[in-house]
Amino acid sequence: MTEVTLSNVVKNYGAHRAVHGIDLDIQHGEFVVLVGPSGCGKSTTLRMIAGLEAISGGDVSIGGRIVNDLPPRERNISMVFQNYALYPHMTVRENLGFSLAIKKKAPEEIIAAVDEAAAILGLDELMDRKPAELSGGQRQRVAMGRAIVRHPDVFLFDEPLSNLDAKLRTQMRVEIKKLHQKVGNTIIYVTHDQVEAMTLADRIVLMQDGHIVQVGTPLELFDKPVNTFVATFIGSPPMNLIDGIVRGDNAVELHAPSSGGLHGGLTIPLPSTARGRVSDGQAIKFGFRADNLMPMGHAVEEGGERTELDLPVTLTEPLGTETLLFTEVAGTEVQAKMYNPRPVRPGETLKFQLMLDKCHIFDAATSNAIRG
Amino acid sequence: MDRNLTHRNRRRVLKAVHFVALFLTMAIICIPGLWIVLNSFRPTVEIMAKPPVWTPSFTLDHYRAMFGGAGEGGVPVFSYFRNSMIVSVTSTVIAILIGMSGGYAFARYRFKGKGAYFVGLMLFRAVPGVALSLPLFIVFARVGIIDTHFGLILAYVAMNVPFTVWLTDGFFRQIPKELHEAAEIDGCTRWQAFWKVEFPVARSGVASAAIFAFLTSWNEFALASQLTRSVGSKTMPVGLLDFTAEFTINWGGMCALAVLMIIPALILTFLVQKHLIAGLTFGGVKG
Amino acid sequence: MPRRRFPEWLVLLLPAFIVIAAVVLIPLIFSLYSSFTPYKLTRPSTLWRWVGTYNYEKILTDAKFWAAFGRTVLFLTIALNLELILGLGIALMVNKVTWGQRTLRTILMFPMMFSPILVGFQFKFIFNDNIGLVNNVLQSLGSNTALPWLVDGKLAMFSILFAEIWMSTSVFAILILAGLFAMPRDPLEAAKVDGCTAWQTFRHITLPFLMPFIFIAMTIRSLDVARAYDIVQIMTGGGPARRTELLWTLMSRTGYVDARMGLANAMGYVSIILSILFTIYFFRKLSAARAELGMAG
């Protein structure tokens, strides 16, 4: 059983603190994705687990064993790097077998392990080439092969797909997921791309400025973001956020960010889930996803709380099965979605319906979610 | 149409000028060297002839005299060649080992005052050989290593270390540090990671740094002329002086020795020219 | 964590520091000391007599020293500038060539592998007034007089400069050529489309990009400007009548011929400071140019 546990892990670079006391439990066989904007400390955290960065405080344990001061080679981990870090002077075969050769394993054992990994990743044809003769996707595969050859306790992936083009990225994403299902090891995966996080993870760890903001399954983060940062980071397009002020106990007045709520905004009903949790005059951020603001007349399921709005469409982005509509609510640009596309002229005003029960209310001062 | 024509004519003229200028440049670069080679094969009478003889005849006299041993105006070429080889090869090997370790430190570690250390190291290279040769002569004489291979090797190691540090620093920095990290994760110690991954990748670069160091030692004169005295330790650049007497110079013999000096340098330089340029520019440009 | 006594980088740098301290630093300290004594090789006891700044005062009030010093600075200024301009020109020409570029580049490296002393002899031969190539050619072309290349002061200076430039221009040419190869094409093409003339493109796009490469070449050159000593020593020995005397030849004569080590070491220090100033100057230029292009890191 190889759980990975971080308790109060800290990383300082001189006076600068890059990681602020992180606690995290990763179960055996779990696929955990660390995600966040660049500079949030996710790569540093991964490198501390790998032993490539010394930890400044706290404990890292792998499989119940504290590994704080162990060099990488004694942690039984493997890692796939962003730029693959294949050994340029070795063939694919030598690259794959390197870790076993270092351990002085018997030649036949190395051959067997290398062939097995090559078969899993479809590398058989490339075994005698040098990394320079491989395409980006092939290098990526060799890097993964090098990682699985030695059956490590934990796989670490450091932004492995960011050097690939969009199409290949989607394809490799699927392969990584298949690989995980096949070998079933614990995987810790770092990325800045929320789509990768959503599609790959059993559990997402969203980080910002060296802190963990939220940990949960992809759907938990999507449906129940703890604050506006999570709300805008997860999901594409990002959640629409509009400044608002609670009026009475069942209404919200939405207004443009600059107006300060002094002159007339747009008043809509307060979603029932938030009633009683906010007070009259409280400044909030009102959030909803594009999927929850749709033109009327769609075949949408009935029921739930709704409100209707007349909004001018400024721009459309047809995406095939759906069309993104750019519009304005109370002086703030928001995006809406339209399934069953029909031509919409810019400037045309449509009647939209907003699904109030899917909306999110955040406290304007703390950015934290207000939820039942 | 007119303007097209003038542009076309101007391009033609420029092309001709370009060709002529390039040809002249290459001629100026090549002729002095060729002149030396040519004269090493001409009899002394012809070299000294007045008016000059333009159709050269061919003789191996100078080479025969040179290799003929110390008698009859001959110069102990074999000894000089051997001294040069011993001194250059040994000092190069040592300088490369020391320089590689230093260059690696600059390329891979972060520490306070790195830039200052680097410039400081380079400044020692800037000390003129003549200026150094005076005190070095006295110190070596005191220690008793004057006129020995060891003394000259020591001096050349010190002279070459700053530059090998510069070059190897550049080459190691071209290697992404992830390679080292990947090797460590694959189970290497730092030492293994260096010798099994980083060194093989940087090998050609290190080789060119070595050749640069070799050439510096091979060609050095200012220090060697003071630190060596006898046939047992004099190197070829110092040996060249053997062909000069009070008022005369044995030009043919000197040219022959010069050719012998140039050939190894020529071969080595051609072998590594590409890496050499890459190393110099990378180390410098990428700071 | 186990505490290490030395950080690893220091351990790695230590051999370099030790060997340089032993072979360069200690002799330099010794020579600094001896520059305050009237030390003569022939009379070792003079090493223990302290004369303060007497040697420095002596050289600083010596017209011969100042003449050599001024000539050295002038020599370096002319040589380095010409080498740069010629190197730049050669690099641009070779860069324009579409065929046989590798061969040309190889030829360019030719002078780099020559020992400076060999260059000295080579040009002493070529500029020889009696049997040298230059005069032979001139006479065959109809000139009656043999030009005294190494005997006349001005001509000798010219000959030495020629030898020095022949030897060192390729450093500039090669490195600038490397810069030209590394140059991205887009800005050049953008400038062309924007209507720049060839000169404007060169001045505003190419040259700024080449600056770091130029300064690398300058730095490398400034590390061993004193190589010129070998050439001058062989070609003229500082003569005729001290007309080509440079700091280094003056120093070596004072030290080895006159055996006045203390005085020579004082001169040595002046020359060391000169070299170091050159080097530091170009190192600073180099990092400035690097920062400007955003290549620092």
TrEMBL record, chain A:
A GO cellular component entry from the record: ATP-binding cassette (ABC) transporter complex, substrate-binding subunit-containing
Name used for this protein in its record: Carbohydrate ABC transporter ATP-binding protein (CUT1 family)
Family annotation (Gene3D superfamilies): 2.40.50.100, Nucleic acid-binding proteins, P-loop containing nucleotide triphosphate hydrolases
Organism whose genome encodes this protein: Shimia abyssi
One record GO biological process: carbohydrate transport
Pfam family, one: ABC_tran
Family membership noted in the UniProt record: Belongs to the ABC transporter superfamily.
InterPro entries, sorted: AAA+_ATPase (IPR003593), ABC_transporter-like_ATP-bd (IPR003439), ABC_transporter-like_CS (IPR017871), ABC_transpr_MalK-like (IPR015855), ABC_transpr_MalK/UgpC-like (IPR047641), Mo/tungstate-bd_C_term_dom (IPR008995), NA-bd_OB-fold (IPR012340), OB_MalK-like (IPR040582)
Domain ABC transporter: 4-234
Molecular-function GO terms, alphabetical: ABC-type transporter activity; ATP binding; ATP hydrolysis activity
Keywords: ATP-binding, Nucleotide-binding, Transport
Automatic annotation (TrEMBL), chain B:
Annotated PROSITE patterns: ABC_TM1
Keywords attached to this entry: Cell membrane, Membrane, Sugar transport, Transmembrane, Transmembrane helix, Transport
SUPFAM superfamilies found in the cross-reference section: MetI-like (SSF161098)
Pfam families hit by this protein: BPD_transp_1
Keyword Membrane part of the UniProt annotation: yes
Record's GO cellular component terms: plasma membrane
InterPro entries the record matches: BP-dep_ABC_trans_perm, MetI-like, MetI-like_sf
Transmembrane segments: 16-38, 85-106, 118-143, 149-167, 206-228, 248-272
Domain ABC transmembrane type-1 intervals: 81-272
Family indicated by similarity: Belongs to the binding-protein-dependent transport system permease family. MalFG subfamily.
Task of the protein: Part of the ABC transporter complex MalEFGK involved in maltose/maltodextrin import. Probably responsible for the translocation of the substrate across the membrane.
Protein known as: Maltose/maltodextrin transport system permease protein MalG
From TrEMBL, chain C:
Keywords: Cell membrane, Membrane, Transmembrane, Transmembrane helix, Transport
Membrane topology annotation: Multi-pass membrane protein
Any single GO BP term: transmembrane transport
TM segment ranges: 12-33, 73-94, 106-127, 155-181, 202-220, 266-283
The organism's place on the tree of life at top rank: Bacteria
Signal sequence, renumbered to the chain: none
Sequence ranges assigned to domain ABC transmembrane type-1 in this UniProt record: 69-282
Pfam families membership: BPD_transp_1
Family: Belongs to the binding-protein-dependent transport system permease family.
Protein name: Carbohydrate ABC transporter membrane protein 1 (CUT1 family)
Originating species: Shimia abyssi
